[in-house]
Structures are given as C-alpha cells and as structure tokens.
Amino acid sequence: MAKVTLKQTLKALYPAIYLLQSIKFGRPSRITVIAIFIGIFISLISFYIFVLRDLPSPTGLATIPIPLTTHIKDRYGNELYKIYLNQNRTLIKLSSLPLYARQAVLAIEDKNFYHHQGFSVTGTLRALWHIITNQRIEGGSTITQQLVKTSLLTPDRTIQRKLRELVLSIAVEAIYSKDRILEMYLNRVGFGGAAYGLEEASQTYFGIPASGLNLAQASFLAGLPASPTTYSPYGTHPELAKARQKEVLRQMVSAGFITWQQAEDAAAVNLVFRPPSTDIKAPHFVMYIKDLLAQKYGNDVVEQGGLEVTTSLDLGLQAQIEKIVSDELAKVSFLHITNGAALVTRPGTGEILAMVGSKDYFDINHDGNVNVTLMPRQPGSSIKPLNYALAFRKGLTPATVIDDSPVTFNIPGQPPYIPTNYDHRYHGQVTIRTALASSYNIPAVKVLNTVGVNNLVDFAKTMGITTWNDPGRFGLSLTLGGGEVKMTDMATAYGVFANSGSKVELSPILEVRDHNGSILEQYKCSRTPLSLIPAVFAASAFTTETTDCNPDPVIDPKIAFLISDILSDNSARTPTFGPASQLYIPGSPVAVKTGTTNNLRDNWTIGFTRDFLAAVWVGNNDNSPMSYVASGVTGASPIWRKIIDRLLKLYPSPGFTAPPDLLKIAVCPATGQLACASCPGKLEYFIPGTQPQTACSGNPGPDRLLEGVKTQR
To answer: What is the CATH number of domain 380-504+553-623?
Structure first.
C-alpha cells in the first residue's frame, strides 16, 4: 500500500488551516473576516485543482471500458497465458437475476447499499483513522465507490484518488438509481480470468446463464471479486474458494436474506465447475506466477494493468516433462499411483525451467488443478542429506562408522520408538557414506539423536525449508520424513549442495514491464538462455557468468561437496539399489536421493548436477497409499531418469569438484581409522581437523562415534 504524507493529506486545506489557527477568540476584526474568506476561497481553488480538475464525468459509466491484457510468457517470449484474452461481456438486466444472486453480492460487498448515498460514513471514518494512525491508504469502499474506481479512475492508492472517488460516488448516486448502479456493477466487476460481469462469470465457471444460478452457485460467485486469483477454483488453493463461499452465506444470514438452514444446505452442495476453456500452457506454473504477481502488485494491476511478464520457464522442456509424467504414470496406474509432479530448476540462479504440478491440470474431478510442487508432503528419506550435512558440521565424517543394528529409543511420556530399515534387515558396521547413499534408516536416526532434533529443524530452515514451524511435534522420525515439506523448498535446500554451500531462492520471474514498457522489476541473476530445443541450442549457453544472484552462504563448501560426492557414489548405493538402478547414469556423475514414506503415500526422487536440479514426486492427492513402489526402480525414479537424461544430452555433467582444502586419506572402512596392513582401506575425503589420527589395530578408533549405541534413555 502507498505511504501517505501529512503534506499530501492536507495539501488542499493549508490556507484555511493557517488562517483558522490565527483567529483569536472574541469578535473578529474586519481584516480577520476578509482573511478568512480569502483563505476559504484559496482552499476551494486548491480543492478544485487537487480533486475536481479533469475529473471524469459520471455519465461515462454508460460505456464499457476495455481493460488491458496482461501477458505471461516463457523465457523466450512464447505466450503462456493472456489474462482477459477473451473479453466477451454479456450484459444482463438486474430484473433477470434471482433475488438471492443480488443479495449474495450485497451481503459480502455492501449490505447497506440501499441505505447510503454513495459512501459509508463508518467505512470512511475507519479508512481516515487508518490513514492517520498507520499512514496507509486503506479500503472502506461501497459498491458505488468500487464501480467508480474500476470504471472511471485508476486503482492507485493515493489521497487524491480516494477524494475523487468520494466525489464521483456522490455524483453517481445523484444521477442513477440504486438498481441501475447495482446493475452496472454486476456487469463490470471482474470475477477472474476472462470473466467480466456476472453473466460471463456464470458461463465461465458453471456453463449456465446467470438467471439460472442456484443459491450455492450464486454465493460462490459473489465471493470472487474480492480476490479472483486467491479464490479461484482453478487456482493453487481451491479450498480457499469453498471457505469464501461459506463466508458469503454467513453474511447473507447475518443480513437477514436467508436462514441458517438455507445456508447449510447451500454449503453442502457439491459444486461442479466447467473445465477451463482458455488456451493456457504450463497451467500450474501460470497460476503460481499469477499468485506471486497478485501478492506484489495487487489483483487490479495484474488483471487490468496490461503487465508484460517474462518468466524463467522453458516451454519446450515443460512440454516434454508434462508428457513424461503422463506417460510414466500410465504405466504404473495398476499400482494405485494416480498422480505425479515434477520440478526442474537451475540451482545457481534459482530459475524454474519447468513445473508440472499434477498429471492433468484440467482433471478438476480429481484435484488436477492442485499444484503438488507447492503443497506440503512427507519427504521420506529424501530429507536425510540435511541430517547428515548437519552431522558433518558437528564433526562426523563420511568414514564415521555406525552400528546398523536394532535400537530402542525410550522418551518419557511417549511409547518406545524402534526404527526399522526399508528392507527390514540390519547391516552391521557401516560408514556414513554407505548409510546415506544406501538410505539405511537406523543409522540416520542414530545420527539425528546425536545432533539433536531441534538443531536439525533450525538447520533445515537456513537451507530453505519453510514448513517446520512447530518443532514441538517432531521427533527422531523427522530424518525419515516425519515433517512435511514443499517440493519448491526441497529444490532450494538441495540447490545449496549444488551451489557449493550457497542458498539461492527460487526466482521464476525474470522481468515485469508495465503497459508503457517501463521495467517494474528485473532479475539480473539469469544466465544466457539455454533452449532445450536442439535446433537452437548453443553449446556455449552456460559459459556466461551469473551476476547479482545474491547467494547466501549457509554451509561450508566442503560439507556441500561431501554430500554431493556421496549422493553421486554408485558403489556406495549399490547395497540397496544394485549396480544398475535408475539412479546410475554411466559417465555422468549426478547426485541423487530417493524417499518413500512407510505408509507408501509419497515417493520422491531428487537429483542434481552443478547446473540442473530435477525433483519428482508420485502418489495420490487424496493421501491414499500406493499398493507398491520401490525407490530406484518404480514410482518417481523412472520419471526422474527420463528428465535428467534429456538435460544431460544438452549439457553433460562434469561431476563435482572437491574444494582444494579437503583432505583425501586412505581409511579402513571397518573402523573409520587410518588404513593399516590388515585393512589397506580406501580413499575418503575429510574436512581438516576431522581426519582420524590413529591407524586400525583391531581396537575401535575414536571415529567410531556411534558404534554400539543400543538404547537411548
């Protein structure tokens, strides 16, 4: 909201205020009276210049303005969506509408509409109070004021515009009848997308004329104008649309228009929406962008301001991934796997190259419009790299030996916690390298018990996880996926490893221009565009250095490398996944981790190189369990593999380069100590100061930090 200065607020009234302050009590002199009249005259002139000059005529409401179209494009200028592309506006007569359709709008927007003269005294005083106390322009608009603002004025939040709105509203009320004003409002107000006016809204959302609306449908539509993007049933959070409908019904009861029973009956109706017919590409991504724009610029600007928005999306890649997700899910539908989502980013810049929020956005009956990449889901073992990164910060190493054996954790007030491995077996003495790469559960829980649950919660927040806001509900199962996360957050967190320890927030918008071509925002971190269409691909596309990315160093580059190195070590993951799983890409080192929840409701695969990151999820939107899924073989992994194969063909991965100050020392895998004659060992990386100091000799060494832990009391 725009800031309001005292000078701006009182600009038109300075002369009168100054003179009134100069009046002394008692009978004013002739000079004082003359001065007062001069002051009033000057104030009226100022008021005319500031408010009335060039004021639009209220008779202009007789014509319908044409709102400007906002264009959302991919990184190469391909049109993804035109907001208000088809502005077909069918005028309706107020008399043709069901009474409750009119009442629904009045109840939620202006229940005293038929009793005021264009403005609400209490609303105006409340807005004035907020201006004085908060120094911000706030609402309090009646239906008449909304009509004036959207039809005759700009949506600017200034004192001048608010005063003009007030004057015009009074004039409109003097010229037009109440029914005519309400009719004009219902024919002009935006209901989202291409739907201008109640008739178009009824046709767009329900495929019926407004005269045929029932109470449930009418109350739903009445709630949209306040924020069409937020309350859209096709948007990111369709549940908000239902909540808004219930609020409209409550207000109708409060106004005495309907009974509680009628409200409850209407709320219980299962609304069936007409599938969106607008030509839209990458719909989940487009709706995500619309939400971001609305939060930043407001709905009026987004839906009528004619913005030119260039996003980071690669439409060619997006189309390929949409097909991969659909095709692969069709192959496993017999396993009760009905949905999937995928996200491709550039970790170094935060750009989103592709976002597939579900198998079919237009499958409204199965919540296809829900964008799973933005919804909290349990990550399974895909969260383990964060646990081990924290462990490395605490002094553990990839060579630290952990006893993968039965263990019971007794926590006061809770039942005993007995973690089990995915394969229901125990693997004895294993290094952290093997434990992470092979995704053993018991070692991960023991490590979390060592570093602390609250410490992991705090650490994850610095890495980009935004959903762990109630640490009191987490326990040791957190490292096995006990805390819900968003895929977008996981992309940010894994991006830290790809970026050598620096966090770069996701930035899907590259540039926004207004309708005059002026730049409103520009993301200067973007690299030279890389088209994934071979005909226009240039091998040098990634040679350009990134600038102005503002990376946030959150972990030591050495720790980031250790995680990346372990996750790209096929021999370390072979005990669980075998030597030739979907995760192994010969000749192309790719760091990758899977995750599956114990109840088989979520299955993940997330992998990255230095230049790309691909995250995939499969499951069911209704949270029902899949009948079977095997990480690295079925579920998310085949989708991820096909995506990463396409990326690697265009930009092969050279692997991950170790920081120069890392140590590489031969150690005995059985003990974690320096290699000896009886255990020649293998080379392992160490952060200086964490390397073992003694050679193996048959006795446990100091690095066997977690060996032998059986029970934690």
So the answer is: 3.40.710.10
